[in-house]
Amino acid sequence: MNAEPQKSERRWAELEKALAHVETWLAPEVERVARGFEGGQAGAFHGLVMGPDEARRALSDERRSRIPVDRAAAAKDLPEQTRLATLCGADAFDACVLLLALAPEVSSRFGRIYAFLQDDLARTRPTFDLVLNLIARDPAERLALRRRFAPDAPLIAERMIQTWGEPGGHWLTTQITLDAQILRLLTGDSGIDERLAGFVRLAPGTARAGTDDDSAAAAGASAALVRARRVWFDGPDPFAKRRAAAEAARLAGMPLIEIDETAIPADRPPAQIAALLVREAALRDAALFLDGLEDEDSREPCPFCTAFLAEAERKGAIAFLAGKQAWLRDGWAARGLARVAVPRPDASARQAIWTTSLAAHDLGLTADQIHVLARRYRLTGRQIETAAAVAAAAEPDARPDAASPNAAYRRVVAATRAQTGQRIGALAARRPPRARWEDLILPEDALRQLRELCRRVELRDSVLSRWGERHRAGSARGVHALFAGSSGTGKTMAAEIVAGELGLDLFRISLPNTVSKYIGETEKNLDRIFDAAEDSNAILFFDEADAILGKRSEVRDSHDRYANLEISYLLQRMEEFDGVSILASNLRANIDDAFTRRLAFVIHFPFPDAAHRRRIWEGAWPDPDRRPRDVDLDRLASQFKLSGGSISNIAVAASFLAAEREQDVATGDVVTALRREFQKLGKPAAEQELRDSLTAGVA
Fold first, then answer.
1. Can you give the residue ranges of the AAA+ ATPase domain (predicted)?
2. pLDDT-derived band of residue 585, with 50, 70 and 90 as boundaries?
3. What is the fold, at CATH topology level, of the domain defined by 610-695?
4. In the 8-state DSSP scheme, what is residue 586?
5. Which of 31, 39, 429, 491 falls between 20 and 30 A from 389, CA-CA?
6. Burial track 87-120 (b if 16+ CB lie within 10 A, e otherwise)
7. What is the reported pLDDT for 181?
8. CA dist 531 to 202, 307, 341, 372, Å?
9. What is the pLDDT confidence band of residue 695, given thresholds at 50, 70 and 90?
10. CB under 8 Å, gap of 24 or more: what pairs does 553-557 form?
């Protein structure tokens, strides 16, 4: 026999046994009322008119004693009474009330009997008056039992019953019905409360942690439950936090009820929703998981979150919260929460997720390509799954290898980069990495350091995870570098090349625009930048870092004190940042030593010497075939001590002058461009002097 019918049959047998008590209570009451008008004219109009004899009986009925109801026996036979007693504080009297309210929901004959007894055809649910008539032993107890329907009594406070009455009606005529979910419980329906539909689901009971980090977070949550019943999962990956919560619930032997805070209707009373959720968890012996708290600008909890935490604490519910809202980050301890970190998946976990996601969408990347994706892009599980889906739906490009793994790889990379950077893009300027290694003219040691920086970024997961160095590395999770050198020496170009080599986006942040004269505003600006960058998979390029990174000064006034606080705060946020950041400074000597100790690289960009300037001049022209042939580049490089940025400006300006004439670049174009550049630099030079310097020695 099927298990579901067997379950229903058992529940019906239990209900029949329980409802037999109701029949026992009703029988003498029905006989008493019937005897009063049997055979009389009033009987035909019962419920519509009250005759004199009935009025006399009503006066005497209030003083009579009744046969005592065996409340304990009825409570024992009520399905789920033990659970209701434990969770809601329901005693034997409450069980009798629940039985009376249950009866018409199971059989309509009870509704008709209630209408007959209450002298009103419309009252098919028990009223307070009928309940007290049936259960109270005498008038004194009847008076005392009125207290059991007060707002703070279990029946009302725990929402086991719902009540309603006619406007202006008497209290005794208030009708009672079972709460919808209590009715489901008593009748054996295992469905979720319909009032929670749309933002609640019962998680599958077979969930397992997806990665070692998920397992560690779940174990940490299990340990935290010993000291706190509410746990906050702190981390960037919503999927990982959900998996960790499901695993922690599984370890505790409990199902998990997932709540999406963003989907709760705004017009629903927060306290009511919170009470229904906590009760649902209690009825199922389940843990709660509140998700959707990802808006990092939320400094105060929403009304629902406040009500939820209060109700969970009041009832001792096990609750997991996940999110990055500021009120969680800054006040989790004060709110009685235990914090458990759920880190971003490491390279090996990302590789496993990539392999599964790409296979699900039939994207045939090679093992090496998957390895590069996992190593290069520090994505969450959800971002990886979304990138695979987007890449699978993308139109193939028009290149000859459109059907090859390389074409699929290009689509996956494009989809991957589209998953990140949206939030940081509102706070910083994206710089497309156009420069190439051959464009960068630097001493060999500086170039070697830049390549070492790229390798550090690519191999950090291997060293910090697989080599077991994570715990000893401390704050070395991110990679932070300082590019120091005067303006125009190639710092921005080098940042572009590093971003291009790593396949990452580059975002430029102007620190002078970040620093505010208002106390505390600089820290808020830095918060917004670093919080947005956490899931960006981009390189942060802090230009003109001298605006904030100058040596910390002796505190002489409040301005010095707050300036030092800003520097310290930037140090703190950089240490916490798990990504790649590059700071550019024109004055290395002005950088605080505390900063250099926290940097993985300090790369010096020297002012180019004559040999380097010659190479820069050679490659600076937009169209090498149109560069001037009558200009001695060796003399140009040795005669004019210009930075690479200035040389590039001159070459571009001269090319525009030539384009206006629709000819190749001539000496005069270079002379004019040189003169304009010197004017910008505040070093005016005579045109004839510049021309002589350029053409001297040219055959």
1. 477-609
2. confident
3. Helicase, Ruva Protein; domain 3 (1.10.8)
4. S
5. 429
6. bbebbbbbbbbbbbbbbbbbeeebbebbbbbbeb
7. 92
8. 31, 27, 16, 26
9. low
10. none
pTM for the complete prediction? 0.65
pLDDT score, position 308: 92
- What does the alpha-carbon distance between residue 262 and residue 242 come to, in Å, rounded to a whole number? 15
Q: Are 645 and 677 in contact (CB under 8 A)?
A: no
* pLDDT at residue 699, as a whole number: 37
Task: Say what the pLDDT of residue 25 is.
Answer: 92
d(CA 168, CA 181): 29
- Maximal CA-CA distance, the chain: 139
Which region among 201-210, 450-459, 554-563 has the lowest average model confidence (pLDDT)? 554-563
At 557 the pLDDT is: 45
Q: How far is CA 680 from CA 646, 650, 675, 676, 690, in A?
A: 10, 11, 9, 6, 16
8 A C-beta contact, residue 388 and residue 355: no
Residue 581: closest CA among 512, 668, 506: 506
Instruction: Say which amino acid occupies 586.
Output: N
- Reference 288, options 298, 300, 280, 299; nearest CA is 280
Coil/strand/helix, residue 520: coil
Considering the segment(s) 194-341 as one domain, its CATH architecture is 3-Layer(aba) Sandwich (3.40)
Query: Per-domain residue ranges for the chain?
Result: 3-187, 194-341, 347-419, 437-604, 610-695
pLDDT above 80 (res 52): no
Q: How many CB atoms lie within 10 A of CB 465?
A: 16
pLDDT digits (tens, 9 = 90+) for 326-356: 777 777 777 888 888 887 777 888 888 899 9
* pLDDT the model gives residue 211: 57
User: What's CA 85's distance to the chain center, in Å?
Assistant: 37
